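Annotated sample (chain length 229).
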Amino acid sequence: MKNVLKISSALAAFALAGAAQADLAFSFADPGLGIRPVTNVANGGGAGIGLISYNMAVPISFIVDGSSEPVGFQNTFTNAHLELNLKISAAVTVGGVTTANVDGFFIVTDSGGGMILRGDSMSGSFVRVGGTNSILFSDQTGFAYTFGASLLSLLAPGRTAANPQEAVFTLTNILTAGGSPLIDPITKAFNSFSANSSFTGNTAVVVPTPGSLALVGLGGLIAARRRRA
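Output written by the structure step:
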């Protein structure tokens, strides 16, 4: 069985090597409007764990840059919306840099509620250096995108996200509840706060060639026959 798995893995690797690749970039600017749409609720994700969300009533203009696609494009989804569900753990400060683990997901939808893009994180990072604050996600720590129908409609058939996959939420104008410090000096947990945010992200896009698809299918066939034997 191990040999079958090795063969299947090798075929998958050859398939990826034989695929055409392009890139997509995503972004939205802080919508302004005099409000702070990002909110963290202290202990909202459990004891000592904050729960970060985004006000879905606040519209964003979500930009998809596919200029490196075979048929280049740039599309702006006006009146898009962001669902944000992230848990932030207690912070650690070393050498003036504060970090905290962040996990969860975010979903961007178009004006009609159709999904444009989803991001899932197993272990992202909040990073604070001086007065700058960001939430960073990377495929190297378990982050991955899923394309929604609204994004797929802009791409040629067969497009799928591939590494590298990255995302950054930049937090600005952070305001804590009651004027408390952002991080509790004793527990190191994040206190409740609101903030503005902008976003940038990118992913490679793999376009399987007919030959690479055949290799993937062959790998699956070998594994299936081995299981039946």
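Annotation: Residues 34 and 196 are 9 Å apart (CA to CA).
Annotation: Residues 1-19, 211-224 have pLDDT under 50 and may be disordered.
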